[in-house]
Every structure is written in structure tokens, then in C-alpha cells.
Amino acid sequence: MPKQSTHADRVTVVALRAYTTKTSSEIAKIVDLSIATVNRIYARAIERGFDPIHTKIIDEYVQDSPRSGRPTKQDPQTINTILSKVRLDRFGREKTCADLAGELSQEGIEISSSTVWTILRKAGLRKTKPTRKPGLTKKMRAERLAWCLAHEHWTIEEWKNVIFSDETSVILLHRRGGYRIWRSKDKAFLRSCIRERWKGSSEFMFWGCFTYDKKGPCHCWCPETAIQKREAEQEIEALNREIEPILREQWELETGVTDPLRLKKISQPRPTDLSRLTHT
């Protein structure tokens, strides 16, 4: 198929033929078109009223001729209708191309699901998994907002004293969530299209932590039994009893306060008992 000439190419051809002494062969090399195409562009401009002596080049002389064929259904109104249906709410986001084509058909717009797919792809939309996030009640949202506001002006040095931790459950030999692969209908048993499924999967919890500039320890554990939970609680209590005096002494040396609760009580004035007052 010969190269299609652009609007700029046709203007260049007409200008060089009319206002210079270059031949069709030389012009064809400049615009990277065939000699026949160059001659046809200039002849069409003459037929449409172009006069190299008395007139300038206008769009009418070089514009592309109307092409035959079925007009596209991807007009701006149809595109906006499809995009608005998808972006309307969560249910619109989940609709298939066939669903959207069916709705448009009921509205008098005959369009195929493949054309709908093309429009969505051109708009930058992809069929992907929805983003998951934890559900929050109004109380939980308020508590999180209050926490953020309370720590809004913390310095880097203060954040360095914080340990961030999280945990997640892991299932061996199992992949969470649905996923898709691209294949033709006759390739179902191709090695790259098969995913093994094993019996006896194992589930455990993974816990990890980190600070501002260091990685903390991590731990994997299986579901605890009642005995293991009691032993863990006893171990934590023993550890607290062991390190609490050391940390308390260190805190008192750094702050200079030995008993903040005692100081708070002493700083408050003692109420007077009027019943004990006697007249002299």
C-alpha cells in the first residue's frame, strides 16, 4: 500500500511546484512520496481553483477527499455515554463490554461489544482486580483521624523511636484470589497453561517489624493451642517483671521524675474540712 500523504505534505507539494523551479522528481524525494502522487496532488489543487499567480494556498485545495466506507460508530457522544456508564458507580465498573453494548442497544445505539472494548482501551481503562482495603466504621475513621492529627508535627527524630509491625497469613502451595491467563481454546493442556493443585496445604502467620532505618526481627508461627497461649502470656508477664525496674530507673534518670503520680497528687490543694474547725 502506497504511503498516505498528510496535509503538510500536500501543502509542500503545491508550494514547491507553484513557486519554485523544482521538478516533480525532486519534490517527491523531499516529501518522500512517489512522482505520480506528487503530480496528482498538484493536479487536484488546480482542479479545485488554485492559481499559482493570483491566489494563495487554502485548505480547500489540499484537503483530503471524502473516503468511502461505513462511518465509524466511535463518535464523541457514544464515547462519552460509554465512559459515563462505566464511571458512574461500582456497579458500572463491574459491567462487561456485552452488558454495555446491550444497554446502548436499548437506547437506540447499535454497537458491538468489541467496539465498546476498543473505546474503553483507548480511554486508558483496563479490566483489573479491584483494590481491596479494610472496611472502617465512623468510629474507626474518627480514631484514625485523631491519631494522625496528634502526630502531624512529629519530627524525624521522634519517628525514629517508633517500631512499625504487621502480620499476615500465608498458605503454602496456594495462591489467593482468581487470576487469568491468555490462551486459545485448543491450548488448555499446554504445560505453560496448567497450574498444579496440591493437597495438604499449610497455613501459618508471618509477623515482621522495622524502624526508621533498620529491619527488625520476623517470626512465623502456626495456629496456637490453648496451652501455648497460656505459656506465652506467662512468658510475657515474666519478661515485663524483669525489664520494668530497669526501664523505670532509666526513665527516672532521663526525666528527673521519680513518681509522677505522687507529684500530681501533692500538687493538688487538699480540701479543708470545715467540721474540724473550732471557735476560740
Automatic annotation (TrEMBL):
GO terms for biological process: DNA integration; DNA transposition. This is Transposase Tc1-like domain-containing protein. Residues 82-152 form the Transposase Tc1-like domain. Residues 222-249 form a coiled coil. It comes from the Eukaryota. The keyword Thylakoid does not apply. The lineage of its organism: Eukaryota, Fungi, Dikarya, Ascomycota, Pezizomycotina. SUPFAM superfamilies: Homeodomain-like. Gene3D superfamilies: Ribonuclease H-like superfamily/Ribonuclease H. One of its GO terms (molecular function) is DNA binding. Pfam families: HTH_Tnp_Tc3_2. Keywords: Coiled coil.
